[in-house]
């Protein structure tokens, strides 16, 4: 369990790839610098998609949490 | 008592469904046991795939327009107005124009996609598109006069209508410019928001080498953030900056506002069970086509198959039988790979796509489909 308090959560469970990453990108677009967005995704592809994109865009992936059948990604907008 | 089915949206999905129900429920419609109303905000039905050919001077927007009155069976009540409010508790719709409110027993939302260029600063001013009728004719004027410089096609966000169309546009532009002896003077760049050139990995793997062969440059992980019409540059959230002389974009898409206001889903897309197409948040409400959030492409072929499923489910319910028809994710797409060659893909929730080798025959099949589309809309094909 992380104790990071997200500013916003995007629930992309059930969406096929690239849905979860696109949902995250959409939410980061409208976020303020420093905001932490939590993405919930149940596709394994997100485990590579999200870190790769966060690095490319200069945003920081603070943590990835495994919860039952899905993962929670915490991304801080640069 | 008469059961009332109301379909909102007279595009591909709504029109195919209305004609499907006219046929399927003929006895009930004749007996007055069922009434079907189709509502559209434009007296014309618009066939959007024609717009891909407009910028190259090969089709006119009017080739994609027909009066709904001529396409829709006489047994259907046609109402031309814009729905402004959906109350799923009271099962009632209100309209923007003069029409009085309407109550429904079964509601089908087929309201399609809306373009939202204003989400990206500078886009409305500087970007061109072929995803709207006026966009396609404006782009035609620019493209016909374009002889050299940087042509950038940027896919801004997904989902958007017809995920194949951005690839088709750059392949067609490449071929068209070659035919006119201008290709050496034009650099073509294609940008995509994720790490591949298409959302579907199988289509991306197929398209990438074709793009390399054709000298179409690609920029992946490119999410347009702003466009500066003064300096003619487009900047991404990832920090990449591209210069353009002609900028063509696939603008951000959303569904219609009233869906979110009615609590049926975010961004105007209706949350549905992806097999039954029934809305998650309300009873007796279905969604189909672009507006149904199923994860499959926003394509006319999808709207067509889904209309058949909703038609069968509605008929079963109206006759008091269990509804068994389900949608399996079936999608068909022809993909133009030049001015006289095309590929073809077919896939569903289980089976991934495997693009066919491009051929002239497939190109003619696509054009033949476009011509016969009006029979599809009438429910004859
Ligand atoms: C350039 C381009 C090329 C394409 N090529 C292909 C292709 O080759 N193959 C393919 O399968 N698909 C293609 N498509 C996609 C296809 O056109 C759409 O996916 C399809 O039209 C979706 O059908 P629909 O019924 O969901 O929505 P639409 O056909 O968009 O219809 C929605 C209708 O609802 C109406 N409406 C919306 N809100 C309201 C309201 N509040 N009240 C009343 N009426 C309302 C709209 O005016 C419209 O008439 C292409 C699209 C574009 C833009």
Q: How are the strands ordered across the major sheet of chain B?
A: 5-2-1-9-20
**Which bin fits the share of residues in helices of chain B?**
25-40%
- Share in β-strands of chain A: 25-35%
- Kindly estimate the percentage of residues of chain B that lie in beta strands according to DSSP: 15-25%
Shape descriptor of chain B reads globular
Largest sheet of chain A: 4 strands, mixed
- Counted by DSSP, the helix tally of chain A is 2
CATH domain class name of the largest domain in chain B: Alpha Beta
CA-to-CA gap between the ends of chain A? 23 Å
| CATH domain fold name of the largest domain in chain B | FAD/NAD(P)-binding domain
* Average pLDDT of chain A: 93
Q: Rounded to an integer, what's the Rg of chain B over CA atoms?
A: 21 Å
Query: Which superfamily, in CATH terms, is the homologous superfamily of the largest domain in chain B?
Result: FAD/NAD(P)-binding domain
Query: For the residues shown, what is the average pLDDT of chain B?
Result: 97
Helices and strands of chain A, in N-to-C order? EHEHEE
Provide the helix percentage of chain A. Answer: 25-40%
**Spatial order of the strands in the main sheet of chain A?**
1-2-4-3
Q: What CATH architecture of the largest domain in chain B do you see?
A: 3-Layer(bba) Sandwich
**Unreliable runs of chain B:** none
| Low-confidence spans of chain A | none
């Amino acid at each position: 369990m992380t104790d990071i308090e997200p500013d916003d959560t995007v629930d992309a469970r059930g969406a096929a790839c690239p849905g979860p990453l696109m949902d995250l990108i959409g939410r980061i677009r409208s976020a303020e610098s420093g905001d932490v967005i939590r993405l919930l995704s149940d596709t394994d592809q997100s485990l590579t998609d999200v870190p790769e994109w966060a690095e490319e865009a200069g945003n920081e992936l603070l943590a990835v949490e495994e919860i039952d059948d899905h993962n929670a990604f915490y991304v801080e907008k640069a | 008592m008469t059961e009332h089915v109301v379909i909102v949206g007279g595009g591909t999905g709504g029109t195919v469904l209305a004609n499907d129900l006219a046929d399927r429920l003929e006895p009930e419609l004749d007996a007055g046991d069922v009434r079907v109303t189709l509502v559209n905000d434009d007296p014309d039905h618009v066939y959007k795939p024609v717009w891909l050919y407009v910028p190259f001077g090969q089709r006119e927007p009017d080739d994609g327009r027909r009066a709904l009155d001529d396409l829709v069976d006489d047994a259907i009540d046609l109402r031309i107005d814009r729905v402004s409010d959906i109350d799923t508790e009271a099962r009632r719709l209100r309209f923007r124009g003069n029409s009085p409110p309407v109550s429904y027993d079964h509601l089908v939302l087929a309201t399609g996609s809306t373009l939202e260029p204003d989400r990206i600063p500078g886009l409305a001013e500087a970007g061109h598109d072929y995803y709207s009728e006026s966009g396609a004719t404006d782009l035609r004027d620019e493209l016909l006069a374009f002889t050299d410089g940087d042509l950038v096609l940027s896919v801004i966000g997904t989902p958007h209508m017809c995920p194949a169309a951005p690839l088709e546009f750059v392949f067609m532009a490449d071929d068209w410019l070659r035919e006119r002896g201008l290709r050496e003077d034009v650099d073509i760049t294609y940008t995509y928001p994720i790490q591949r050139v298409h959302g579907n990995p199988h289509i991306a793997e197929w398209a990438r080498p074709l793009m390399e062969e054709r000298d179409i440059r690609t920029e992946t992980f490119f999410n347009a953030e702003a466009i500066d019409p003064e300096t003619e540059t487009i900047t991404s959230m990832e920090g990449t900056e591209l210069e353009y002389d002609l900028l063509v974009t696939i603008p951000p898409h959303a569904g219609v506002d009233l869906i979110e206001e009615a609590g049926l889903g975010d961004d105007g897309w209706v949350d549905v069970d992806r097999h039954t197409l029934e809305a998650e948040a309300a009873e007796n409400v279905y969604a189909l086509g672009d507006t149904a959030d199923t994860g499959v492409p926003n394509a006319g072929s999808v709207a067509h198959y889904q209309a058949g499923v909703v038609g069968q489910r509605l008929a079963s319910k109206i006759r008091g039988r269990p509804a068994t028809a389900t949608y399996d994710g079936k999608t068909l797409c022809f993909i133009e790979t030049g001015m006289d060659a095309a590929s073809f893909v077919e896939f569903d929730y289980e089976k991934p796509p495997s693009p066919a080798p491009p051929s002239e025959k497939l190109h003619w099949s696509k054009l033949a489909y476009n011509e016969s589309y009006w029979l599809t809309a009438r429910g004859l094909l």
